[in-house]
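Support request, please re-run this one:
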Amino acid sequence: MTTETQPEHSVLSDDEIIPKKAGAKPASHRLAYKTVLAAIVIGILTISVLWMLVIRQEENPANKSVVTGTDIQEHEDTEAKGFEVTHIKDEHEEIDRRLVSMSGQIDRGFGTQQTYSTDVKRNLAVVTESLTTIKVAVADLSQSNKALSQRISETSSRLDSLVKGVRSLKVAKRKSLAKHKPRPAKVPPFHIDAIDMWDDIIYVAASQAGRAAFLKVGEQRSGWTVIHIDRLKGLVDLTGPAGQVHSVLLQR
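Re-run finished. Output below.
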């Protein structure tokens, strides 16, 4: 009787199946792997028991044919042995089919796991690259913020200096204006000589630096305005640029 030897599948531990760098897997994946491994162990134990039963049956003297001297008994024993051998072969074929099916499931499980691990590694690589890009962008932004803060500080310092300079100029200008501001004159710079009348209009004769001028009420000279003329009293009232009032009384 020929027996077909199935290739033994090495049972890998969870640590060897799952890459270390893939990270923690969900509980459902671990449960699936444990179920597959348990099925493999049960299949191996079943094959071992069946092989032990076959070997014992072949070594048992009671199972050997005893020559009774009649062809009929020998024929019946041969048919019984043939039936047993056929039954054992059928069981072996069924076991082989189950092992092939389990092997295919295990291979598909390993393929799925490898695909999942590859996807996880790819995603981790993408995340790592994104984090690196973000870190570089944050570093650049921090550097730009530092440069911008420095520029703002320098600009603020310049503005402060300009404000102080403008204030200093205003204070100096005010002081200069205060120093050079002319005091209002108490008397006009010209001399009132006389009061005359032409065409019923009263004039005053004013002389300044050898030049004479005739002014009536409301007219001005050198910033001084004639506001009142009293011919009978010989009185002339004038207002200066600062609003000061000056009166002139002519001698008769």
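Residues 1-25, 62-69 have pLDDT under 50 and may be disordered. The chain has two domains: 14-138, 191-249.
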